[in-house]
Design brief:
Blueprint lengths: L21 H11 L10 H9 L6 H25 L1 H4 L9 H4 L4 H22 L3 H20 L7 H20 E2 L2 E2 L4 H25 L1 H7 L4 H5 E2 L7 E2 L2 H21 L6 H22 L6 H16 L1 H5 L1 H4 L1 H23 L10
Antiparallel strand pairs: 1-2, 3-4
Helix pairs in contact: 2-3, 2-8, 2-9, 3-6, 3-7, 6-7, 7-8, 8-9, 9-12, 9-14, 12-13, 13-14
């Protein structure tokens, strides 16, 4: 396993092995950074709407989106950088930029540093507070720990989940800091941070683990999915702690409703109805995914996509009356539109690509 900024590379490792034009190079960087997923850089925005404090207007939303986007891009580049040597052993991953050599490891290391430094500098411009930027830095550290140990330590998915939760808290602190004074953070922020912690843990350990089940098996990665799902002689796939993961998702759904009844979060009647429908769909597709009978990648992809669509709508629906219908709709629909557009631009397909299957 290689490090992102340390280690001696062989001669010529600092230069791409393939010569590509400027536009093609940008496209390769976009693929390396999983730019198609950048539209989901809304976790910090969730925190801002949940915390209160200064008015959450378009400039602050744009700034938090930019911070979150740089965070995601840097994390994705670093992930491929750390896994570069492992990825080279897998035929299915031969088209990744670092594997085929269109981008060198040294270029990827610099891109990682630029993204994370830019992320912190922009965060300081938004809120010049050591504590606020420190929370963001802690989120980055947990993301780096996940990338480093995801294929070495069982349960490293928890690093990923903690990183996302801290990013939500960072957004809340940014909104709560006004004229040099921190406003009190409400319980809604902590409830949403807990939802994000659970959902990201599930997403990475179960959905991501199933997606990479065969690849992780080839390199002996001790992932949660490899330990809990087992294939015997090409037979059916089974999940022993099915009830545990379903209980986690049920707890996440209950936490979404908690702010209405425990913290006085305002709501409309139709908002509760919409949340109820989205919650039911989330649990239904979760149950279907946990009960998958075979390692059918296409069925896993379909169930994952449906579960994610339902799940990712929960927090925006929770914040509907706080943020307004316009922002609520944007937080649900804009990430999907972003994905479809950039996925087509980078991979030639709107709905699937090698990174998201």
């Amino acid at each position: 396993m290689t490090s992102s900024l340390q280690g001696v590379e062989p001669p010529g490792a600092g230069r791409p092995r393939c010569s590509v034009g400027a536009l093609a190079t940008l496209r390769e960087y976009g693929r390396l950074a999983r730019l198609e997923g950048g539209g989901f850089a809304v976790v910090a925005i969730f925190g801002a709407f949940a915390a209160g404090g200064r008015a959450v207007e378009a400039p602050l939303v744009a700034g938090l989106f930019a911070v979150n986007l740089l965070f995601i891009l840097g994390g994705c580049i670093h992930n491929d950088l750390v896994d570069a040597e492992v990825d080279q052993q897998l035929e299915k991953l031969k088209d990744r930029p670092l594997v085929k050599g269109t981008i060198s490891r040294s270029q990827a290391a610099w891109a990682t540093a630029v993204c994370f430094l830019g992320c912190c500098l922009l965060a300081w411009c938004l809120t010049p507070s050591p504590m606020v930027v420190g929370v963001l830095a802690a989120s980055i550290v947990f993301a780096l720990l996940y990338n480093k140990f995801s294929k070495r330590i069982f349960g490293a998915d928890l690093f990923f989940a903690v990183s996302a939760s801290l990013l939500c808290v960072y957004g809340g602190l940014t909104a709560a800091f006004d004229d040099g004074v921190f406003h009190t953070l409400g319980g809604t922020l902590w409830a949403i941070a807990a939802v994000i912690l659970i959902d990201h843990f599930f997403f990475n350990s179960v959905e991501g683990g199933l997606k990479d089940f065969e690849n992780d098996g080839h390199v002996g990665a001790p992932t949660i999915a490899r330990y809990l799902f087992c294939v015997s002689g090409g037979g059916p796939l089974r999940l022993a702690p099915r009830a545990f993961f379903l209980a986690l998702k049920a707890a996440s759904v209950l936490l979404v409703f908690l702010p209405f009844f425990a913290f006085g979060c305002p709501f409309w009647t139709w908002q509760l109805a919409a949340l109820g429908i989205a919650s039911a769909l989330t649990l239904f597709f979760t149950w279907q995914l946990l009960g998958i009978g075979t390692l059918d990648r296409m069925r896993i992809k379909r169930l994952t996509q449906m579960q994610e669509i339902a799940c990712r709508s929960l927090v925006p629906l929770l914040l509907g009356r706080v943020a307004g219908v316009g922002w609520m709709s944007a937080l649900i629909l804009a990430p999907i539109a972003w994905f479809l557009m950039f996925n087509y631009m980078l991979h030639g397909k709107a709905f699937s690509n090698p990174k998201t299957v």
